[in-house]
Amino acid sequence: MTASDSFIxxxxxxAFHVGPLTIHFYAxxxxxxxxxxxxxGSRRWAARGGHPGQxxxxxxxxxxxxxxxxxxxxxxxxxxxxxVPGRNxxxxxxxxxxxxxxxxxxxxxxxxxxIGCRRAHVSxxxxxxxxxxxxxxxQGLGRWGNWFNNELYGDPSTLPxxxxxxxxxxxxxxxVTDASGxxxxxxxxxxxxxxxxxxxxxxxxxxLYVDRRFSLGAGSVFALYVAxxxxxxxxxxxxxxxxxxxxxxLRVNTWVAALIFLAGAVAFVLLxxxxxxxxxxxxAHADGMPAPGPRPPATEQNELEGPH
Length: 308
Hints:
Layout: E1 15-18, E2 21-24, H1 25-47, H2 54-77, H3 102-120, H4 124-148, E3 163-166, E4 168-169, E5 174-175, E6 185-189, H5 192-214, H6 220-239, E7 246-247, E8 250-251, H7 252-271, H8 282-286, H9 300-305
Antiparallel strand pairs: 1-2, 3-6, 4-5, 7-8
Helix pairs in contact: 1-2, 1-4, 2-3, 3-4, 4-5, 4-6, 5-6, 6-7
């Protein structure tokens, strides 16, 4: 096979069945990302003086809120996919077919995290700083759900790493076949899902390194995540060719990425020289709240792994 003949294949199935249950790979990728975010966030939270298990408790509020927020954003920004003649409005609830807007997921997820932090009497800012790299790793894993769904691709391409895209039937969870039984191939495109996944990995590693190296101030770790992720997302949105609503010739998410990048960059500049965030503030201790435990110094070892 020559370089011109090479391509990245896409799956011809997006789900499998276990008895009466239909398991969607999109959902499994999201769940895997959530597990990674909780695992890494828990270790970083412990390094900030938090109790073991608090991250999971807070995520029980943040994750469902984030999923709801992500779906609401997707439906609001692409209503014609669900609410025009010929479309089934009940598909707005079919989250397993894809369609989660990260902006809505982060916004409502932060509301859920705020509720969880209030109930646990801990710092929301410290929680966001602790989970930031895990969240961006989770986003990178979640993009592989788009690979299974044969979605999130760029312009047609002849590059050696071009992505093969099939025509999918999401009611059956498999590719549409032609008269010979072969999966119908729509074409070969830029693998923007892969670019974004790799970018998320790079941003997460950058956050871990910079936070260890410079002991970033309260709130600036999360701001770095916001700025880093949206910088790449802006570029990837310009590359994408799948359907999207436009404003002044640009995709809605392109504008949103640009605006959120500016906000994240400004926040990072304003916050990175502050004191490092901790799970429970000195003011909370003064009010008689129980201390979460000794806070070890921020080192390369315990910031990633937490206390042993």
